[in-house]
Each structure stands twice: as C-alpha cells, then as structure tokens.
Prior knowledge:
By secondary structure, this protein is of the alpha/beta class.
Amino acid sequence: xxxxxxxxxxxxxxxxxxxxxxxxxxxxxxxxxxxxxxxxxxxxxxxxxxxxxxxxxxxxxxxxxxxxxxxxxxxxxxxxxxxxxxxxxxxxxxxxxxxxxxxxxxxxxxxxxxxxxxxxxxxxxxxxxxxxxxxxxxxxxxxxxxxxxxxxxxxxxxxxxxxxxxxxxxxxxxxxxxxxxxxxxxxxxxxxxxxxxxxxxxxxxxxxxxxxxxxxxxxxxxxxxxxxxxxxxxxxxxxxxxxxxxxxxxxxxxxxxxxxxxxxxxxxxxxxxxxxxxxxxxxxxxxxxxxxxxxxxxxxxxxxxxxxxxxxxxxxxxxxxxxxxxxxxxxxxxxxxxxxxxxxxxxxxxxxxxxxxxxxxxxxxxxxxxxxxxxxxxxxxxxxxxxxxxxxxxxxxxxxxxxxxxxxxxxxxxxxxxxxxxxxxxxxxxxxxxxxxxxxxxxxxxxxxxxxxxxxxxxxxxxxxxxxxxxxxxxxxxxxxxxxxxxxxxxxxxxxxxxxxxxxxxxxxxxxxxxxxxxxxxxxxxxxxxxxxxxxxxxxxxxxxxxxxxxxxxxxxxxxxxxxxxxxxxxxxxxxxxxxxxxxxxxxxxxxxxxxxxxxxxxxxxxxxxxxxxxxxxxxxxxxxxxxxxxxxxxxxxxxxxxxxxxxxxxxxxxxxxxxxxxxxxxxxxxxxxxxxxxxxxxxxxxxxxxxxxxxxxxxxxxxxxxxxxxxx
Length: 713
C-alpha cells in the first residue's frame, strides 16, 4: 500500500502509517542527536524558579553545556539571564533536542511546532498521559513524532544526562558524577537514586516509554565508547524477545544489569497443565535474562554494588578468592559468604618473605588474618603477595577500622598495593557505608559488609564465565518436518478455531515429526477394542483414560496388565470410576522402570515459548523441582537444565541405581524446544512422565493444547 492509512492495534488503538520518503533516513531516527545534541531548547523555562523547566535550564547552564541553550517562554523576554523566545518556531537556529515542561494540554502543540522546524528529538517531562488515562493524547504525540522522524523520550520522565557531553537535562538538584555506567530507569525515584550514587556516562529516564525503549538504548550504548556497564531498572517489557536478542549481543562486549520489578505473582494464569502453572511471567523473565547473559538482580542496591565493581575492575578469570584482613570474625563471614555464592577460598602458601614482614600471630592460610595490630604497610605487602599467587583470581580485602594504622593510612596502602594489579580487587571496610559508593584510588570498590562485596564478586565471576562460553549452536529442525507439523496444527485449528487439547493420536503424530520418542500405544473406545490392542502390542501393558487432565487423581491409570482379559476388566472398572468425562482409553506397551521426568513448554503472547524440565510423575507439582530456558536450546544447554534439578543425582546412579541415559533425555528436551519455536500455536505442552532408563528416554504420556497465536510485538 502506498497511501497513508490507519492500522488497528491489539489494544484497540490505531497507528497511522505513511509511506517512506527521502526524509526518513536512518540518521533522522538516531538517538545520537538526542543523547549528544549540539543545541537544546527548554519549553516551559521560566515558569517559576521551582518549575521543572527552570531547573533543567539552570542544570544545563551551570553544568557547562557547550552548545546553544534556548529558553522558550511566551511571557518572558529573558530567563536566567538568557534571551527567551515565544515558541519553537521563533528560535534563531536549528535545534537538536527540545525539553518540554508545559501542562499536558499544551504538549501536542509544542510537538507539532517541533515537527515543523526539524527538531531531532523531544524529552517530555510532563505527566498526564497514558499513566493517567491519557492514552489517546500519548498515541497522538507518538504519531506526530514518528511522522516527522523525531525520537521521543517520555512522557512523564525526569530527563536525560550525558556527562561526556556536559549535558544535564534533568530537574534534579544534584549534579551527576562522570563515569562509565549508562543507566535507564522507568521510575523517576529509582533514576534519582542511580544518578546520586553511580558514576554515570549517560542516563535516560524513559517514563512511559512511548517511543524510545530499553531496546533502543541498548543498541545505542553498545557502541558508546564512554559506556562500560549498562544498568536497567524496568517495570515492563515492550518486546522481550527482541530485548533478549539485543542484550545477548551487547552482553558479549559490555555487562547488562537489570532490576525488573513485579516478581510476585504478576500475571498468573488459570491454566490446567503442569508446565503452564509453573511458568509464571517472572520465570519467563529469568529465563530470558539467563539466555541473554543479563545479570538480573533483586534490588537497586545490588545493582549499584555490582555496577561499581564492573565499571572499575577487570573481570575475574575464575572463582578463586584470597581474603586478606585484620579481624578473624569478618573474614570468617566473608569465607562463608563466598561458599554460599559459589566462590572458592583455596588454601594459600604465601612466600616465606611475607612471614618475616607480618606479626608472628598472623594466620597466613586463606583467609589471611593479619590480626588487629597489622599496620597499613603489612596489609599492603600481603595484598601484593596474594595477587602474585597464580592460584588466585580475585582478592577481597576486609579491613575493620579503627585498628592498625587507621582508615586513611590503610586506604592509601590498599591503593598503592593494587595500582598495577591485573586481577580483580574489591574491599570491605566494615561498617563504613558511604551512600555515594567509595572507590579507593578511583579503582577499588568499597563495601560496608562482606556479604555485599561477595555478592558483587560472584556475579562478576558468573558473567565472566558466560562471556567466555561460546554462543549456543542449535541444530535446526527439518524443513519437511516443520511443514508437516504446521499442516497438522492448521488442520486442527480449522476443526476447532478456538484451539483446545489435541487428541492423543494427533499429539503423537506431532511429536514424532520432531523425533520425540513416544511409547507405542493404541487408542481404543470400548473394552473389546482394549483387549485386542493388548494382544497386538504384547503384554504387559498400561491402560490410561482419555479425558481427565490428571489421570492418576481421577483413577484413570492401570499398570502391569498381563492378559487381554485383565485389560478388558480394567476398562470396565475405569469407566465406572472416572465417569462420563472418560471418552476412551489408550493401551500402551509397558516401559521399563526408570526416573520419571517432565518435559514441557508454554507460550506467552509477549514472551514467546518457554521450555521446562523437572521432576515428573505425581510429584511434579509437589516438589516444584524445575529448570526453564528460552528455546531453541543446544544439547549442552539441555544438559545444563538437567544438572539444575535437585533430583538430577537420580539420573547418575544415586545410591546404586543404574545410571540413566542423560544424553537421550537432553536430546528429547532439545527436540521439544525446536517444536515450540516452530509451532507458535502450541500454547501448552506436557510430556509427563518421560521415563529415563539406561536404554533411553521414552514419553509415556503427552498432552498438547493449541491456541491461535497472536503476532509478535
């Protein structure tokens, strides 16, 4: 279509679409002219010294922004000693960025003026849009910006910062410190805390995220030379699958930290299968973060602690930590925290020369306890000695003031001892909690308590391991199998447009197209047919009711049936016990005893498919022993999922049990992952249980529910 037209959106709104023109060049949609502008106008400056616009203007001027800054106020000739202009159209030169701080009713008019004069980007501080019932006004604001090639930050935000460009376009009172951490916040209050406590390269308060999102900023910061670490505080995802793809690429170069609020029960669904009940949206966020190498954190404080370490120190080459300090108690707590967080505190053999420099009472193992009398010089010499040990990847200094030479002298000694260090060094000054976040010599992050330092170090070590691990190589599914399976799904949805649970025969056909091993079975609808099926398969067999969701609870499973007569009798008894919901039965060849595992998947409209493995059988829900990933997955990742399970020792010969074929189970997990990716209409899938034996992995019960998939964001 070459004419302008409206496109209906899923939320009931519409998007206005126009054909591309020569003016729609990529640079017109770039964030570079927004986050590093050459000129800025502030609309609403001078609306009183306490107004947001006036504060933004003062921050720009006082912060030394090098380009032109134009106040826009129709009622003033000068604002803060600077000539003012009645509107954007009256400005004397081109403007890259306009900061808007006027009442909500005036914002659209300002946006139209900006569109008409070639402005590259808007930062709308004004509230009163979608967050407060103003969805229509927000949609119109986005339409105006996109039709003119302008980028929009906000509305309902506190502004943006770029310290290398000397731009503080926020209305906060405190000036940000220059550094190498780029931060995004969807919350103004959290954003203010990040600006106050972190050394910042650039900062964006995205507000309602009407246009510029976390995905846009990740791509911008990926190539930003001033940025070493990216920290995100998010309350929602616009396009989580795209986020995962971008973050996985960016994370290979720079760590991406994320705090995502809304962990507790948000978005629980009334579903019937084991997998869907377990896979809450927060589990989906965890799986996305893990697949993309994103460091997900529970609190903003943790994010700030880890960001300071990653911005100032090299990544640890491993998990071996040397602990050096002057007090046994805090060092013991540090060693315990290391063990809890997966770090290793190996025995050390310091050089003989060190023993001659420290007190005879010092313990030179690991932790290295120099006692409370240790001087700053002794602490410094010990740090240098353990840094030289090839069996050490990181050093954690734990100093308890005011003992020894005191805080200032010890601070200087740590700085001197670590100045040439190529290994990771962090420090804990017990009880010394500077809300600004101390750095010794601008390099060594300082924490008030050992647990904080250890958590940050453990996260850095885990990230380093992920970055050094090759990206997953996933074997693609057969094109012919994909086409055949798609036809099965299309036919099933044509029969039942609203979707629903597939019958056992169709479920088995679908699984076999992806190489999922399913126990041989025959679908029957009366006792005589069941007896004949048992003769055809060979006994012993299992009889399972078709209809009830949880067959065991409904009395719909009979095992170990050794004769056709026994099968016939079991069918009569089962029909009486289960009742009219039983629509038939499956006669299935008995599988040898093994470990029962559940493999499943669920497809969220926003997040896409999620793959699960866990302890199966009747204990699946009781023990909640599960591991999730975003498919598709490689065999290596499938093996990692299995190893995550608390029940995994059962597969490896626990207490004399025969060792199961874990590789066969991993292969089945990977195949289910390929199915979930290829067939978005598969809303839920449960293979429960998959019986894993020394001879392989066989699914003995499978359920698939279809639901017409909505288009991805």
